[in-house]
Amino acid sequence: MKSVITLVTLCVSLNLTAQTYYPFPTDSSYWSIGYMNWVNIPNGYWVCGGDEFYGMEGDTIIDSTSYSKIYLSSFGDTMFNAQLATYFCALREDSMKKVWVRNPSDTIDVLLYDFSLNVGDSVCLGYFGLGCVEQVSVVDSIMINGTYRRRIRFGGVVEAQEWIEGIGNYYGPFQLNMTGSNTTFLLCHKLDDSLIYNSYGSCHCQFLDAVEEFKSSETNVSVAPNPASNYVTFKITDKSELTYYVELYDLLGQQILNHSISSGERIDLSNYNPGIYLYNLKSDQTFVGSGKLIISP
User: Fold this and answer.
1) Which neighbouring-strand residues pair with 186?
2) Which of 157, 176, 198 represents a domain boundary (last residue)?
3) Higher pLDDT, 143 or 126
């Protein structure tokens, strides 16, 4: 009887931990990428320098193997424009969860993604010519449209790069994470005209105004520095409450921080990826303030 119970428990455990695999699209899929530039005048903020749009439409046969065709449309559109698009590459996913790219001038495939990787595994990113230098640091899940998809994060040369099953890299499907004053972000991903992923509330890159846009919605809270890199401090004018709670959310609505603080206490941000986040500040009894926080590289 004990062995039967153990077997049942094991089966239940396996079912609970099993997760649906989302393969890469094969047609009618679109990605919108925003190019962001860091401006240091007067206090520093991100501005969007333009859009880039990729579309997957149709297929082709190369060396008896089927590929999906990827097109790139020009800057200036608000979404992928098939009439203005140019052929970019051919793409396929094999049975081992590896995504391969064949560039127009190439005679061999190069590896773009390997969604079978686990923590500690290294990968040879042939598409970027980096060799076997990337190592998986974290494998977790992210909620996309009500379901969880596997996410792979890397350390090393392309630190903070993230792959999401069936979508691609957080920084763009064919982009390498850039550092310093320039970077890219995947704004949205559509499949058959259905919005699958939307990180910034729009598929079109919109210019960010100055840092005034990111002040708290309540006057009794100041957030500094904002943008921040290593730490941020929340100062509360009303000090009748001794303890406050700050909640930090990414733009997918996932809570990434829930921490009790005192007014003026520093919060370490060194483990969070660059980007735009939303915060709520509360006390035990009242809502104190909310706003946007930029984490810069």
Assistant:
1) 33
2) 198
3) 143
Beta strands in the chain (DSSP E): 29-39, 45-62, 65-73, 86-93, 98-102, 110-114, 122-124, 132-144, 147-155, 162-164, 168-169, 182-191, 194-198, 221-224, 231-236, 244-249, 255-261, 266-268, 275-283, 287-295
Q: How far apart are CA 23 and CA 94, in angstroms?
A: 10
What does the pLDDT average to over 97-101?
95
- Cα–Cα distance between 126 and 52 in angstroms, integer? 22
Q: Which phi and psi angles does 255 have, rounded to 5°?
A: -75, 125
293 forms beta bridges with 277
Tell me if the bond preceding 42 is cis, omega within 30° of 0. Answer: yes
Decide: 148 and 178 in contact? Cβ < 8 Å: no
One domain for residues 169 and 241: no
Q: Can you give the residue range of the structural domain that contains 87?
A: 27-198
Residue 242: per-residue pLDDT: 61
If you average pLDDT over every residue of the chain, what do you get? 77
Residue 297 — very low, low, confident or very high, per pLDDT cuts 50/70/90?
A: low
Q: Determine contact, residues 98/116, Cβ cutoff 8 Å.
A: yes
Whether 183 and 241 map to the same domain: the answer is: no
| pLDDT at res. 4 | 42
End-to-end distance of the chain based on CA atoms, in angstroms?
57
Torsion of CA 173, 176, 180, 186, to 10 degrees: 10
Task: State the average pLDDT over residues 244-269.
Answer: 79
Q: Is the pLDDT of residue 11 over 70?
A: no
Burial (Cβ within 10 Å: 0-12, 13-18, ≥19) of residue 201? exposed
Q: Judging by beta carbons within 10 Å of its beta carbon (0-12, 13-18, 19+), is residue 71 exposed, middle or buried?
A: buried
Whether residue 262 lies inside any domain: the answer is: yes
Q: Which residue has the tokens 């530039």?
A: 37
Q: How many residues does the chain have?
A: 297
